[in-house]
Amino acid sequence: CHQGSLPFGSGSSNSLLLPSQQSQPTFGFLLDIDGVLVRGHKVIPAALEAFRKLVDAQGQFRVPVVFVTNSGNILQHVKAQELSSLFGFKVDPDQVILCHSPMELFSQFHGKRMLVSGQGPLVENARLLGFRHVVTVEELRTAFPVLDMVDLERRPKTTAPVRNDFPAIEGVLLLGEPVRWETNLQLIMDVLLSNGNPGTGLATAPYPHLPVLASNLDLLWMAEAKMPRFGHGTFLLCLEAIYRKVTGKELRYEGLMGKPSLLTY
């Protein structure tokens, strides 16, 4: 959906032909949020007018409505609360599809030890999706401090002993853009090139590599700034380019999700 393209009509609330309360709706809406319903923290006025046509006097939707967002650094119920506050009517958590929500379908990886990248409530989100054994980039960095060398202020001042008791990583979850791109890019590459044992080195990078699940393919997104901002798709582009340059092979995904992927819909 694009701003201004929703088929809501422009007249009074009676101008939109909606099914009566006695009949079952034969259609519904999947609504994008950023740039369509809100811009930054401000609701787009036309969106409020549209919702006045979609919501009845009791605050209930006349037809099924689902909010689809490529945001992933927030919990589903918190996003629902945020939308409820913005729009002035109740949005239930099951009406919100975050970029990583479809990872719930990948049950074959839920029991594996997965490195998770992004920001916000990463571990809680991963566990709500069904992943039972997750390791954050920060936890990996703490276990292997010599891996993160770009920031001079964070470089270890002494040589730490090599860890032999750290269980192998079995896959990578990319839930959204991280804050420290250089750290996450480096440690994700370390995991892929070492077959999940970043404290060691392999003469040849394994291929196919460990499974990678990624969400939010947006190269750019629109916030309050006049020009678009980098999205998680830009981070993925960097990771793909580095992997290709280092190995000569293509980075492969077990799953790509987030709008506009078919998996998300």
TrEMBL record:
Residue intervals passing through the bilayer: none
Gene3D superfamilies named in the record: HAD superfamily/HAD-like (3.40.50.1000)
Alphabetical list of Pfam families matching this protein: Hydrolase_6
Domain of life: Eukaryota
NCBIfam families hit by this protein: CECR5, HAD-SF-IIA
Name of protein: Haloacid dehalogenase-like hydrolase domain-containing 5
Organism name: Echinops telfairi
Gene: HDHD5
